[in-house]
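Minutes, project check-in
Item: structure for the 269-residue chain
Input as provided by the requester:
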Amino acid sequence: MLCCQFCMWCNPKKSMKKKFLKRFLPKIIRSYQPLTLSEVFQKGLSRKDIYEIMDDFYYQHLPWQFVEHRKYFSKNSRGFGEDAFHSMWYLLFSEFKPVNCLEIGVYRGQVLTLWGLLTKHLNYRCDIGCISPFSSAGDSVSKYIDTVNYLDDTLVNHQYFNLETPEICVEFSTSEKAKLFISQKKWDLIYIDGSHDYDIVCQDFESSLNNLAPNGIIVMDDSSLYFDYPPKEGTFAGHPGPSRVAKEIAQNKLNMLGGVGHNNIFQKI
């Protein structure tokens, strides 16, 4: 059971959000019970309402260890993202149980460690890999802390959560070594969160698509600028590069399951 200190219905600090949910969200959300991610997407809701469901799930239904994980990475700028994304990943892994998972672009290991904790919680074996230069080089959009060794910190964070070290490729995603790394297997899940420059995102998407397993999933970060998603305060819709690739290429080559905030989820059918 989720500890009451994180529950919006028990924590007075969450009372404003509780009132908002009761007053403004559709009845389907107010009476919401945990569903699969696919079921949420198939309700025909707006992206704004889907985001509220994920945010609501974080406080009401997400197991406490994942809330603690999010709190850990929210401190001292260890990671980016939003609370609703932890709900998204929890529901995605619970439903699809990907066995081979790849992250393109790593900061300090928030997503990688979350994947490791999720597969432990769901009690199945998952092989996790990543490709990243582990630096801010090559990204003209985002700003990072330059005094941190991202690779060392990623390893330390895996030790903190008592997780196995993923298979790591320290390269730019467009290098020949990185492309060879991607081609070593068919991936059930690929998370594209590297450079935000259009040409590089295009290459990352094509490399991912070419090595995606049947029914495999690609999640694109920072990619909702050109979808009907009005970000609420404290969130944002994404960057032009990934958003163009998601809108112009990804949704035409794959089945779009849906989006949570600036993350968009596509499946190879």
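Outcome recorded: The two ends are 36 Å apart (CA to CA).
No further action items on this chain.
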